[in-house]
Amino acid sequence: MKSLFDRRGDDAPESGKSSRRLRALFVLPIVAAAFVAGCGSDDSSSDTEDEGGLTATKTYLTDHSADLAAETAKIKTAANAYYDLAKAENFDYEKLLAKQCDAVDAALTDAKDAFVAANPNYEEMEGIVAGIPRTAQYDTDMDAGSDASDPESAVSFNLTLPNGEVMKQPGNLFFLLETSLYGTNEDLVVKGVKPDVNCDGKVEFGEGLPDANILKASADEMDKQANDLDADAQEIVINESDAFTAITVMTPTMSEYFEQWKNSAFVSGQGKQDEASFVATSRLSDIADILTGINFTYEEIEPVIAAENADQAEQTAAELGDLLARAEDLRDREAGGEKFTPEQADQLGAEMQAQAEKIAGQVTQAAKDTGVEIQEA
Amino acid sequence: MPEAVTQNHRSTGLTRASAATLLAALALVVLLLAPARAGAEKISAPWQLEDEIERQFADARTTLALGDGDSASFTAPGKLLQGPPAAQLKRFAPDQFEALSAALADAASAARAGDEVKLGAAQGDTLAALRHGSYEATIALTEADRVEDAKSWLLVRDFRPSTKFSQLTVEAADALQGLESGDLSPAEAAAQVNKDLLDTYQARVNIGLGAADEAGRKGFYPRFADQTALTAGYWGIIRDRYVEDLGEEQAKVVDGDFDTIAAAGLASDYRAFKGAAGNAASHMEGFVASPLTLDDKIRRAAQFDRFIELVPVEYGRGVSDGQVTRDFEIQEAIAFADGAEQAIADLSADLLDQDKAKTRALLASVSELQTYLEEAAAGTEVRDVEEIEAISGEIADTADSMFPDDWQGSSEDADYDLVDISLDQMLNAINAGDYEIAEQNRLSAYAFFEFGPEVKLRGFDPSLSLEIEGMFWYGARGFDGLATLIANKASGREVQPTLVELKSAIEDAHEITGSNTSNGTVITNAALIVFREGLEAILIIAAITASMIGARRYLRKPVYRGALLAIPASVISYAAMVALLGSFAKYGEKVEAIVGLMAIAVLLVVLNWFLHKVYWTEWIATHRKKTKELTAAVGVGAAAGGATVFGLYALGFESVFREGMETVLFLQALQLAAGTGPVLIGVLIGLTAMGIVGVLTFKLESKLPYKKMLIVTGVLIAFVLFTMVGTTVRVMQGVGWLPIHPIDIEIPLWMGNWLGIYPSWETIGAQVFAIAFVVGSYFAAGWVSKRKLKKQRAEYEASLLEKEAKQAEDSEKIGSAAGI
What we know:
A: two-stranded antiparallel sheet, 2 strands, B: elongated
């Protein structure tokens, strides 16, 4: 029998041939494997957009996100000024109002003015921010999220106050700021002190004496989130799928907004409302602002739908335009001093809600026709 | 003072407000009247007819509701119904056209009279007649294969709104697309359109009754009137289907209910409405206009089971010692109970057919459970966890006893639902800062995916499957993995990008696994699966047998035999498991983990044998070859014992068995989707390709010089061990047998797939340990072998001395003898 050593001895001088065989032995399965890996990989990406995406919608978004960041910076400055005043008096608010009433009034008025500018600015882009799943968490945290009692829609942050207390999932930031600044949420304001912030001897609706710790933490967090949103907005590429998704997600939410409008001070009357928020700006105004953003987004995808079904494109454009016109009309009437009864609000809201649901259905149908994916929210 | 608030205060300023109102009213009249006239004249498409009619109503009703006038304008029916859509409607749905004309005339009259209630009722009648007509026209045109016309009428429809548990569906649009592309026949497309629209309008009947009830209760009579009229009109759309199931006589009874409902709306009579609505609900109990498909039923049944199972879990987390300790868990429990209620409501028609009393009791129990949860949320009464567990258990048992066997199969849609629900729960838990629960939910979502659709997906699109796995675990597509994010306690916002990308990928997977697949795709995929899995097996077998040449060639036989035996064993085991367990998939990953551990154990034994008996002995022999006796000794040393032969047999078996089981699973997914024929063709192609590569590999291997072969073998065995350890640890993490501690580094997906490298301390740690073990074994074996050789040599030298001594002694003896 030929021994192992004999065999080795035969091949002892290393030859080029054996090296090639060695390489081949390694390479053969690897090449085959690479072939298999290559063959098996269908490109699953459905993104067929140009790299820039929907540029007009993006510009709309970034313009608004930059403006929002500018306004939240003002809220932050004012809230911090108020906090410093309260801290200087060791959070003795009675003393604070007695000694620094003008300064307090100035700080809170600045914060409210900035709030009134920031909120509609946000609402105008809310249709895009909330409608695109990649940015939707900003909407939950800043404008739409509830507190921890409703886990399905609760915000994702805890608020650590300057005094070390932690408010776990306290609700959205606009809500915190608005209801503390306007004094409609007793958990967020100073208790036991008459909130005569402008020291004119009487307390008017909308006058509130916020807990300085809460206001400062809320304003700081809001500013941080607004800046994060602005940074992300600069980076994001908005594609057709985002636009279709935004419209189908956001349009039917009108129902909720009308409900909030009906229950707000604007319809129910000051002090009789069920809604603590939507004091500074009517929810009707928000509805019109949101629809403005949705309409703007639709305009950019309308040609895509029209290429497949011109009737469909025209129908949705007409319905969206109509819905927006109605919302603006009501908003302007309300701003002009007209007061709506709960029944009027109910009927008008229901009609507009039905129209919004139809639009969502139409856009979903159009997404099918055009092969665009509606993303999971 | 902020502007908006200030404006409210200013609103008492009468002059300014009045002027603003007047201006606004004027603007509205100008705005609304102008397009109305222009619109009525240019109606050329069905949607324009609907749009114009809706606009007329909205304007007129707004005018009256806001008190802008005592009467409102409304275009005459003759003007609205004069374009091509009206003509088509008259042709395809003459009854509805007549009803539409009459309702529009009522509307014009009510607007003139400023009667809000009558105008509301006319709106309901009008829209119902128009949409009923559109329904008839769409079906007729679809059956006539007039796709474009059907599409234009399909734009005039209502939609079933989406809920938390059901997305907005547009199957009718899908059907027309299928008709256009030739995938569906006109009859098939019409049936699908019919199904979608019937489902929509039945849902709308229920929604309308609810809305009418609310409006009537509040005394909002114009809205009450429009909802009652609309709902009665929508009943007309689903009536024919009702007749099919329950007969004309019973349908006439329901006609009576809806006539009363409509009349109650017009008469602002809420009490009459309540009675008739109750009767209608009772007469329609169990009727489903658009019966669910079997797959729908499986999906609902799976949702129901899962939701009911989750209710006590969530409740238990939220309640302690009779107190609600975590509100959000109670809310989750409520959400699941609501989901269960929706699912069982959809199934109730079938269940009522089976056993009315039992079904009603089941529905009542679900309702009772919801009440208990609501009470806990409101803080009025907090039931013990055991009580909620008991009632949930009873509900589950009752449902289980009633659900037919064919509802209890697996449903891909249900699996996807469950993945989605678990991911949402995960995000909720992250937002609440409860990372332990978040991780449990992540693993649940992964398990639903892994044991359900993933098997099929890997058959159709393995790279997408890998990407999804990557996002569940350590990252893919440039996004961090969920396992990593949760381990790092990332915030909800930080998790969101991965979650969105993962959901999008899962949606793609749903489309791929749910779509019809061409035979070509199935053949290609089957061939690729066999080829890919076969290659892995070849690599392992080649590594093991590489050194078995010369005197040890006979050792190849047990490896080959084990490998060959594994092929039928895979098929038989799979069939047996399916027969015994119903669904093998549920246990697939655990089986994979166990087989993986066994394979590692055997591989370590073989590695040890290789290092001791082959490598070091050969190495020593190479450098210190002395005599033929030593060579003979090596030959003896290299001979394997019975235990080693068994180990080799087992290794060959397990190496192929692992791949075999996977292959059979994937092929079954393809077979279910496309039948046996294309899969068999694919398998044959794959086997042929694999055979060619296998023959070439083994041929090359046999021609390599021995020294190189030793290196190749050592490297390959170490490589196989390294990969197997990584993959097995990852699988053990997947089934929850090992914890996960991610390492924050990005590792490409292919490295996980081909090298078993995943960025966690457990996987990489185990691999480092495995390599350390190989290196340690190498030196240990060297030390032992050298020692043994030294001993052998000492013995040999001693034996030589002994031999020499003996020879000397013998010589002496011979000499002495000769001397004698």
